[in-house]
Design a protein that fits this description.
The chain has a domain at 2-125 and 223-272: Aminopeptidase (3-Layer(aba) Sandwich), CATH 3.40.630.10. Strands 1-10-4-5-3-2 form a six-stranded mixed sheet. It has a two-stranded antiparallel sheet with strand order 6-9. Strands 7-8 form a two-stranded antiparallel ribbon. It contains seven helices and ten strands. By secondary structure, the chain is an alpha/beta fold.
């Protein structure tokens, strides 16, 4: 069973309403905080390409924690979701303090940061501020034989790379796709044909056509998005997914580590995807009828029960994240 919901366990701990971090997210502070507690141990699964460590906290009161049913909590796969790693980094010490009885029966594995490069850059506030999502692995995303030559640019010099809008003129290579929201002129939205609305503006990440191919910011530095880098429904046509599944060594090491733990019974990810606020569909398969697109029918009730508890704890009632289908 795989659940997606930032702060699921942390939100359920008495007296805890959230957490924040002013600096980059690393394992060092969390190790210092939790390493001395009797119920917490730490091991390194792999080195990351940036020289960091892909580490896991192991919480259990048993001499052999791998012999008990285990919950895995993973955060920081999508480098934009800094808050997930901030929450996960606090979990080991909090669970050791407040969930001792739980750890008598179960083991909890916490992996706070997978994409350490992007998480740390997004948390650091380096200028210009922008979302870092890809690894530094060079990839020719636009297929012109060059790499990393056309990334975002802070055109207006405000210290942030955001979005820009404009009215495409005659002969422009860009087509209008959005209109200005009449209720809030700073926002853009897609036109509603039923209301007779017609697109007037193009909307794009802030940048220029730096390589002269008529496209804007289509080949930024780096290239692999770890959030779509896994074997399940790997989009082989998307260059950001890597040349093959688990191409990045530390993601491959993580997959092997998980497969070796036969005691794992549930998996929670902290990220932008959701299957707790809104329960996933059940019984759907791809065109081959072999790959599930949601969850198995027999598991649906579990998601509904856990989702109900999640909404009760967090107060979330709307879909704040995204589903896999909404990104395709």
């Amino acid at each position: 069973m795989i659940l997606a919901g930032a702060g699921l366990l942390l939100a359920g701990l008495p007296g805890v309403v959230g957490c924040a971090s002013a600096g980059p997210i690393g394992l060092e502070a969390a190790v210092r905080d939790a390493g001395g507690r009797a119920l917490v141990s730490h091991e390194v699964i792999s080195q990351t390409p940036t020289g960091g460590e892909l580490g896991v906290f192991i919480l259990s009161s048993a001499d052999d924690p791998h012999s008990k049913p285990a919950l895995v909590i993973v955060a920081g796969v999508d480098g934009r979701h800094v808050v997930g790693s901030q929450v996960a980094s606090r979990l080991p010490s909090l669970l050791a303090e407040r969930a001792g009885e739980l750890l008598d029966e179960f083991t909890v594995y916490v992996i706070p940061v997978v994409h350490d490069e992007a998480i740390n850059r997004n948390a650091s506030g380096e200028a210009p501020r922008q979302e870092h999502r890809l690894t530094s692995t060079p990839v020719d995303l636009d297929g012109d034989g060059r790499v990393d030559e056309d990334g975002p640019v802070d055109i207006d010099g405000d210290g942030m790379v955001t979005m820009m809008r404009w009215r495409p003129g005659p002969g422009s290579l860009f087509s209008p796709t959005h209109i200005i929201d009449p209720d809030e002129p700073r926002l853009m939205r897609e036109p509603d044909p039923k209301k007779g609305e017609v697109a007037t503006h193009a909307l794009h990440i802030e940048g220029r056509d730096q390589d002269g191919d008529g496209k804007i910011a289509e080949d930024p530095p780096g290239g692999v998005d770890l959030d779509i880098h896994w074997p399940y429904r790997w989009p082989e046509w998307n260059k950001e997914a890597g040349r093959y599944q688990l191409e990045e060594p530390h993601t491959r090491a993580l997959a092997h580590w998980l497969l070796e733990r036969q005691n794992i019974v549930a998996f929670v990810t902290y990220g932008l995807h959701d299957n707790l606020v809104k329960a996933p569909e059940a019984g759907r398969f791809d065109i081959t009828r072999r790959v599930p697109l949601g969850v198995e029918q027999g598991d649906l009730r579990v998601y509904e029960v856990v989702g109900e508890k999640y909404r009760e704890i967090t107060g979330m009632t709307g879909l704040g994240g995204v589903t896999r289908e909404s990104t395709e």
